[in-house]
Amino acid sequence: MQRILSGIQPTGVPHLGNYLGAVRNWVALQHSHECLFCVVDLHAITADHDRRTLASQTRDLAASYIACGIDPQKQILFHQSAVHAHVRLAWIFNCVARMGWLNRMTQFKDKSGKDRENVSTGLFVYPNLMAADILVYHATRVPVGDDQRQHIELANDIRAKFNHDYETDFFPEIQAMIMGPAARVMSLRDGSKKMSKSDASDQSRINLTDDADTIALKIRRAKTDPEPLPESAEGLENRPEARNLVGIYAALQDIDHAGVLREYGGKGFGTFKEALAALLVEKLSPIAAETRRLLADPGYVDGVLRNGAQRAAALADPIVAEAERLVGFLKV
Ligand code: TYM
């Protein structure tokens, strides 16, 4: 059975992009794979964060995973800072990855922008830690949104160089699993920008905790063009906002773009947006309610994370110990 690892940063309320690009696929994959689902709190401190809310956001995100359908009995759900093997391997990878490789990361360029000299060095080496998250379990499949493709390629470069330098085949090849018609959900206000927790406008995203009225309002206000929906998927080319909304509908219904357009092609956005809002409310409201229910008992969620960290460490510790042996550290 293939082993899967994936994670989300606890930097705010998870949104529809995190759900459709990642968690929803995890839920489907957990029946046929051995899975580790991580709340990546070490990554969350690479940019400014609030120390008063980091712990509760970590717990909240774990509750969201469960509310979305992750089974914490069958699969391992844990937070990254609780399993020390991640940072031990990340340090080794910091010494394997090359500056030039990291300099090419588009996410680093986007996040650092003009402020390159002032961002943390953690943000720069962020992808090395991500490679360690995966490889410290010898996971080979990583279900993520489209924006993570480059980071997975880098993780493969790191493991190839490690294997080459230390004359081993210890670290296996990793495959990104980028799935479904909503692997890149765009902002509701601008079809050229991806939906993101860090967008200043809350109107740009659907949060998994939004209530029905908020969802309906955000969809009604979502940017569109004046044309009716096209009859076929090719007609969505050069219509990023239309493509985005159709992709969201398709993903939620488990169909493709063409399937949505068979029903809504030729119709105006008024009708389609109403149907989309109703579908979003139908799919997301139970998740919000279940998250609230779970968080009414924080002890339960903390117990899940504690148990998950123990199980994760049991897998990771021997792997990082072997990597350290290959590197040549004295073991006494
Ligand atoms: P983060 O928190 O930015 O995103 C978490 C997951 O959500 C996906 N995602 C999206 N998918 C579709 N449309 C969007 N607009 C959208 N925005 C976010 C991301 O692709 C991701 O799958 N570096 C990772 C976290 C991480 C990780 C890992 C992932 C750390 N270690 C190991 C996999 C394996 C990230 O950016 O998280």
Q: Which terms would index this structure?
A:
53% helix, 332 residues, 3-stranded parallel beta sheet, Rossmann fold, Tyrosyl-Transfer RNA Synthetase, two-stranded parallel ribbon, binds tryptophanyl-5'AMP, mainly alpha, globular, 13 helices
Written account of the structure:
This protein has helices spanning 16-29, 41-44, 54-68, 85-94, 99-103, 106-112, 121-135, 149-165, 212-221, 240-253, 257-264, 269-295, 298-327, and strands at residues 3-8, 34-39, 76-79, 141-143, 175-177. With 332 residues, the protein is mainly alpha-helical. It folds into 2 domains: 3-184 and 297-327, Rossmann fold (3-Layer(aba) Sandwich); 209-293, Tyrosyl-Transfer RNA Synthetase (Orthogonal Bundle). Strands 1-2-3 form a 3-stranded parallel β-sheet. Tryptophanyl-5'AMP binds next to strand 1, helix 1 and helix 7.
Short description:
The chain is mainly alpha-helical. It contains 13 helices and five strands.
Protein topology:
Elements: E1 3-8, H1 16-29, E2 34-39, H2 41-44, H3 54-68, E3 76-79, H4 85-94, H5 99-103, H6 106-112, H7 121-135, E4 141-143, H8 149-165, E5 175-177, H9 212-221, H10 240-253, H11 257-264, H12 269-295, H13 298-327
Parallel strand pairs: 1-2, 2-3, 4-5
Helix pairs in contact: 3-12, 4-7, 4-13, 7-8, 9-12, 10-11, 10-12
The chain binds tryptophanyl-5'AMP (TYM).
Tryptophanyl-5'AMP is lined by residues 5-9, 17-18, 21-22, 40, 43, 130, 133-134, 142, 144-145, 147-148, 151, 183-185, 194-195.
Order of neighbouring strands in the sheet with most strands: 1-2-3
CATH first level of the largest domain = Alpha Beta
Encode the helix/strand succession as letters.
Answer: EHEHHEHHHHEHEHHHHH
How many β-strand stretches? Answer: 5
- What Rg do the Cα atoms give? 21 Å
CATH topology of the largest domain: Rossmann fold
Ions and ligands: tryptophanyl-5'AMP
Distance from first to last alpha carbon: 35 Å
Instruction: Choose one word for the global shape.
Output: globular
What is the CATH superfamily of the largest domain?
HUPs
Q: Which structural class best describes the helix and strand composition?
A: mainly alpha
